[in-house]
Amino acid sequence: MAEPFGGSDDGQMLNIKWRSDGRGGVVDEDCDLIGWIGLEDWYEPGVREARMAWVVQFMVPGVPAMQRALLESDGEPETGDERKAELGLRAKSVVEQGAPPVPTPFGHAPTGLGDNSEIRELIQLTDFALESAASRVKAAAQVMEPQGVMPLNVAVTEMMGWLRSVDELGALIWGEQLTSAEREKASQDADAFISSPDAAPGLVSAEFAARQSSGQPYRDWTIALLGAHIGGWMPREELRGFRWLAGKLLHHGPLSAVELVQWRTGAEPRWKWRTSDDIFSPPRPEQRASQRQDYDRVVAGKDVVGGLRFNDLAYSVESLFLPLLP
Questions:
Q1: DSSP designation for 228
Q2: What pLDDT digit, counting tens, does each position of 61-78 carry?
Q3: Beta strands, E only, the chain
Q4: pLDDT band at 282 (very low <50, low <70, confident <90, very high)
Q5: Alpha-carbon distance 31 to 17, whole Å?
Q6: 271 forms bridges with which residues in the sheet?
């Protein structure tokens, strides 16, 4: 039964039905419910580790959810009448203050498109994800059992998704986050390499000629990689081919994109990219047929593991953008 244990400032009597284990009870004032006191886990704002505390739960008129407020940190079970009265009076005081403030969300990653620091974090996290996915492809390719192709296809699907993310992010930063002067400076660095003896003859010749005629920065952000770190540059047609594959895998699941091929009798079989017809049957409609053609022209038939240059691509992306986003 409820026991009277103290009077409130207005002369009314507080009562509590205390649990036998000393870990809390129900508090009322002249039969009007105040709340439930309990010894519970309590998380301070911005903290993920709980501490034991005395907590009161109560209802507020017009608010559908049960409210919860702190009475006392680092609590222990109590059985003494004096402590019961103290906790009960404290609970009444807290409840009278109404609903506590809504906790502020926390813990989100410092990535985004709001300022340069967020963009830098976003670039580095996306590059890390691509490199990690490529490592999982390499590991899955070493599985010798016949069923090993299943986790390999899953890993390939993930890797293609992150490669597409890198391309989308690079295009967005190049087109929307950098100033025209910053794009021009990066384009000039690319021009210097394209015009150097180290560049392959005819490298992005059409884009180079168009820039010399217009005087505008390159439209394709990947060309700027040539001036940042040549080892990670990927031709646009190769990225378009991989975009076709990424679209099919992300929309239709881990299709069979790779197969083992021996380049001659008795040679070690290696994982190669299958043709587009083997991956996705031709009768199905294509929104971007040119990307499918790029895939067959520059990707299909090539070595999967030996052709993974995504670590270099990630390094090139950071070499290009991070100095421009201080």
A1: T
A2: 988 899 999 999 988 898
A3: 3-7, 13-18, 24-29, 32-42, 51-60, 63-73, 258-261, 270-273
A4: confident
A5: 12
A6: 260
